[in-house]
Amino acid sequence: MKIHPMWREYPALQTELEQVLTLIDQNITTNNVPVRDAILDMINAGGKMLRPAYCLLFSQFKQTDRHKMIALAAAVETLHTATLIHDDVIDESDMRRGLPSIQATFGKDTAVYAGDYLFTVCFKLLAGYASDLRSVQQDGKHMEAILNGELAQMSTRYNMAITIDQYLNQVSGKTGQLFALSTFLGAYESGNSLRFARNAQTIGLNIGVAFQLLDDILDYTASSSQFGKPVQEDMRQGVYSAPLILALREAPEAFAPYLSKRLKMTDDDAKAVDQLVRDHGGIVKAQELAKDYTDTALTAIEKLPDMPVRAILSQLTSSLLNRQS
Amino acid sequence: MKIHPMWREYPALQTELEQVLTLIDQNITTNNVPVRDAILDMINAGGKMLRPAYCLLFSQFKQTDRHKMIALAAAVETLHTATLIHDDVIDESDMRRGLPSIQATFGKDTAVYAGDYLFTVCFKLLAGYASDLRSVQQDGKHMEAILNGELAQMSTRYNMAITIDQYLNQVSGKTGQLFALSTFLGAYESGNSLRFARNAQTIGLNIGVAFQLLDDILDYTASSSQFGKPVQEDMRQGVYSAPLILALREAPEAFAPYLSKRLKMTDDDAKAVDQLVRDHGGIVKAQELAKDYTDTALTAIEKLPDMPVRAILSQLTSSLLNRQS
């Protein structure tokens, strides 16, 4: 079991995140050895565990049963892992979290069932630990919104007319809703009012969108500076993100010859697109957009009750959304 | 919308099954057109709808809110369809319900997400209409058991030493548990006691296992008589079912040269295996096993309260488990 080093600064949270991993391990009870190994490898590969972390943090505004909150944090991490595994099947990705992806190592069949199995583990944990049906209903709505985000993204692949609003809707779905579910569950299930939990949910949504925006920006800034050439696997697969979309609308005719090549795009083509994105202000504009969401989240966090966890939320969110890699 | 002609004999049930289909249609709200079309094509392809039918029948021992029961019946059909779609991805099946499968028509990506999307619709329906958390917890357990059945089947592919108990465990999982969930939900959610609902669950499990056994027997008897030659796609893919398993243990050395060819098995090899299965009594023994499960289910049905629905359950189960095609 390996916890991401970013949690060393928060030892109490780190201990609980370790308990989340242990509980997930205990819930992977299938006798199918490849599937079990595949899942456990991935769970223990040192992912950031941001979603369970936010769930646990938002549960600290009340004194509450920690085992229950750890189980719900495990449920959101399980759901997140299930979506990653199925995304890798669809993108035919060979790597995930620095390791070969499940579908690369064990094949597509194992990956499809491993994802499905994790969905059922998530379902079992949510149903087993939620305090009432409302909470489970809320989970169902979030899960549908997450899938709708994925599906919307799939249906706009290679669409050069994609608008920034369409992109933001997709990101709100696929990333935002899972963060929103995490903060909602943490707040609501620890005994806060529904009003407080809805506020937590909105904060989670904004953090999630800002986080995804930043991830998409780093795909441009980190890849060209650190590796010397743009990789841009998503772009080649037709998944256009904020920096490209915001630059593309300024000069569609400049991008068209490259993007229309789709999977046949060469490394030089990708470099040219990378340069066009910079030339047309795509990165700066996307950074401004990310800053809007970050500021909205941080302002709302500042209005939370004045307890030690508020400072942690503020510090974590600030460093997460201002990271350079 | 097309309901299987078998329901013409049961007009009240047929009407409710049509409402189940309408409700599923209304719940497929994704904007992703290929995924929506793919799911609706499959839902409306005239599948037997046995699981929702049993759910609805077991809800008729009490006067209850029909809309709620239709929603729960829709949940089980949605879950069943999700598992079929993912099974087709894994088996790379080109046909399903007499139509091209989703993965053949729309590709693997659409099929993976279409299945995932249906899982979330199922989750939403269960959480939205279940009467309490216990029921949702029960759903989670069934879903895990279904996946464990699929996973166990996957892990014994091409295993010539597979025992009939292993096979029955897998069938109890992948088919039995979904029937058991259907009858449990129908009984419990319509206001019967937990004891009554557990009995319904056991009946559902036995019906499900008998149904799968019969399906596996018909793969041998129907294919050779109706199409002139054995197809045996499952066997070539290493999924060994009761007739083969029961014959194989009598004369493993006779089967080995053919089965060891795996996917390279020719049509003549498949014919030879088909004949060996018959020669070693595989079909007769599997029929005896199916009869055991059928009789157990029918005997338990006879002990249910003497209401009109009992006669329907008895007649339906009897004809379903004695069908010739």
UniProtKB/TrEMBL annotation, chains A, B:
Q: Which organism is it from?
A: Furfurilactobacillus rossiae DSM 15814
Extract the PROSITE patterns matched here: POLYPRENYL_SYNTHASE_1 (PS00723), POLYPRENYL_SYNTHASE_2 (PS00444)
In the record, the note on similarity to other proteins reads: Belongs to the FPP/GGPP synthase family.
Q: Can the keyword Magnesium be found in this entry's annotation?
A: yes
Which cofactors go with this protein?
Mg(2+)
Which taxonomic lineage does the organism of this UniProt entry have?
Bacteria, Bacillati, Bacillota, Bacilli, Lactobacillales
**What is the protein name for this chain?**
Geranylgeranyl pyrophosphate synthase
Which molecular function GO terms apply here?
A: metal ion binding; prenyltransferase activity
Keyword list (alphabetical) reads: Magnesium, Metal-binding, Transferase
BP term (GO), one: isoprenoid biosynthetic process
